[in-house]
Amino acid sequence: MPYLVAADCPAAPAGERFRALVGRPGILGMPGAHNGMAALQARAAGFEALYLSGAAMSASMGLPDLGVITIEDVCFFVRQVSRSSGLPVLVDGDTGYGEALNVMHMIRSFEDAGAGAVHIEDQLLPKKCGHLNDKKLADPRDMAAKVAAAVKARRHLFVVARTDAAASEGIDGAVARAELYLQAGADAIFPEALTNAEMFREFARRVKAPLLANMTEFGRTPFFTASEFEQMGYRMVIWPVSSLRVAAKAQEELFAALRRDGGTHAMIDRMQTRKELYATIGYHDYEALDASIVRTITPEAMPQRPAAKPPER
Prior knowledge:
By secondary structure, this protein is an alpha/beta fold. It folds into 2 domains: 6-241, TIM Barrel, CATH 3.20.20.60; 247-289, no CATH class. The protein contains 12 helices and 8 strands. The chain has helices at residues 14-23, 36-44, 54-60, 71-85, 100-113, 140-153, 166-183, 197-206, 226-231, 242-261, 274-281, 283-289, and strands at residues 28-31, 50-52, 89-92, 117-121, 158-163, 188-191, 212-214, 236-239. The strands form 2 sheets. It has a 5-stranded parallel β-sheet. It has a 3-stranded parallel β-sheet with strand order 1-8-7. The longest helix has 20 residues, at 242-261. It is globular and about 85 Å long.
C-alpha cells in the first residue's frame, strides 16, 4: 500500500523492529536492495529486513567503494529503500565518516532517514571492500570509541560493529577486537571475510553476541546458505551486492543488444512488463487515493507492427 497513508506506515521505530527480528528464533536473511524498486521486489519475495551496501550505493553512482560517498549520499538511498518497502534496513556506515562526533552525526542522520540498523568497521580511510587485500586497521581503542559514540547518539538504531581483523591479525585478533567493541556497547558483531566454515564456527564459539555473516559473491568466503550460517551460530546474513550484480549484467546485455540490433525486440521476453511494474510499485493504489486521476489501463502485450504490404506490380 502507498506510504502516503499513515495507517500503512509502521508504528514502531525501525530500530525497534529490527531488534525484534534479530531476537526471534532462526536467522534473519537480508538481501541487498540498492534502490526502492529492489526493496519492493525483496519485500514481495517475503523478506522482512533489507541491507544497504556501501559498495552497491557507490556503484549505483558510478563510483568505487573507497569511502568516497558522503552521509547525505547514503541518506538519499536510506530514505527511498525504507520508505518504499516499510521494512527495517541495515545500513553500511563504512568507517563512520570520521571520528566520534562524525559517527554521532551519522547515527542521527541515518535514524532521521529511516534506518533500522547500522554497521561500522574498524578500517582506516581510504577503506576497501572487506574481501580485498591490504586493508589498514584502526587502533581497536579508537574503534571502540566510535562504537561508544554511536550508542550514545542513537535513539533506537541497532548498532553492529564490524571487524576486518581476521585477514591480518587472525581469529584471535578478531575475537579480541569483538570483545572490546561489545564492551563499548555494540549490539552485534560482524566478522568480515572469514574464509572457511571452521573460522565461522570458532568465532561463534568464542564471541557470545548476535553475529552477522556476509555472503558476498566473488570474495573470500565460500558459498554457504542461510541455514548453514545459522547452524554455525549466526543470527543474521546479508547478500550485499547480489541484486545490483544481476541488474547490472542484465543492463549490460540490453545495451549490447540495442546497439547490435537497433532495437529491443530481442530482449522483450527478459523485461518486466508495464503491468508487472505497476503492480510492483502499487501504481493503482496511488491512483485510488486521488479520485481525480482516471485509473490507468495497461496494455496486455507489445503491439505488433502491421504486416508489410507486398510491392505493387
